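So, could you explain this one?
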Amino acid sequence: MTDHTVITRFAPSPSGALHAGNLRTALFSLLLARHSKGKFVLRIEDSDSARLDRAAIDGIQADLRWLGLHWDEGPGEGVDPIHWRQSARSAVYARAAQTLLAQGDAYWCFCTAERLAALRSEQQAAGKPPRYDGCCRDLSSSEANQRQEHGESAVLRLRMPTSGTLAFDDLIRGPQSTAAEALGDPILQRADGSPAFLFANALDDAAMGVSHVLRGEDHLSNTPRQQVLLARLGYSTPAYGHVSLVVDADGAPLSKRSGAAGIASLREAGYRPEALVNYLARLGNPLAEESLLDLDGLAAVFDVARLSRSPARFDFAQLDHWQSQAMAALPPTTLLSYLQFSGVPENQRLALAELVQPNLHRADEIEAWAVRLFDPGLIAIADEKPLQTAGAAFFEQVDSVLNDSGDADWSVLRPLLESTTGQRGGAMMKPLRLALTGLAYGPALGEVIRLMPPAIRQARLQRAIAIAAAGDSA
């Protein structure tokens, strides 16, 4: 590794399942690392025991693997958790806290929750942003120690500068600056001794050599605080880029309660991982390339400076577009693993997959088409009116032509059916498709007729005759 190696990370909190918003951040971080021939690190930020969902730790890893987002460093067989899991790194944070205290860069704060709530209310009423007022900032170390010895609860705060401007160049948003006095002194360590997000997050980035941090714009205010923290401990600061939030149809940011946009929900709905990756790679990141790309292809064209600063709306119609492309690109043999219906002869299974693939939104929908074309039972018909309009004689003529024509090609059958029935185009195709498949849409009708067993085809045409005749007599 050289001093110029790009190292990015994804550092989720295991308080719930991944959703499309934080997955997009993981994807952008991986693409930046791959584009730069660098490393992508996965770190689990589980220091907040009150919000910890242990099942989410495995779930996060499973979701990333399903999507093909493989990390270079992080969880793995035989890897000590101290290298990727915050709950195993408490000694690291304790040492840093003691260093800051010894330097006078941190102090103990004894303000109660009631006092802080009253302070926030007072500031908001005055039209001021809420921030800690430094009440305990000037307590002597001896007084602080004495109060702790008497059982008073305390948190550890970072002593921030009270004047001047804190500035940095955001990889996405350009130059950013904040008046130091507006930030207040953030909590580094909770009263129970556990590290706060801001503290552990920055220390771990430094320890893991992270050079570039991509995270949501809701973390913008954390960056100057973490810059000060890292400088006080003698660490260099990563380059930060704050990506726009992903919002739902109502404009609300996605969260771990976002339901339909959760990765588990999308997977269960049948979305292909390559469809989700291609959609998210373009969400707030316009690409000229409109075809389905693998991760190497997406990494080759990734440019962090091109990422949008505006909120990105999660659009299922756009996701469905990429799902269609992903389904079309699947080898038909892949679909066979989803085909459980035993009524399809072995020598026709691949032909069925090839026929219905353009009509599949999900791979498991092949099962419904197998039943529709090969189940001898009578399937439901979506709309019987076109059958009644066509009339019983129409289906009798179709049945006769198909019975007499054997395995004739559709190029022969179609003109023969048109001349026999006197119907063309939709007037012929729609009622015939409804009679055979129960639907007004689907694969090429000639191929449906060729693939469908003759006995099933004939039974469905006989039912169509009965439906049409009942309509004629009504």
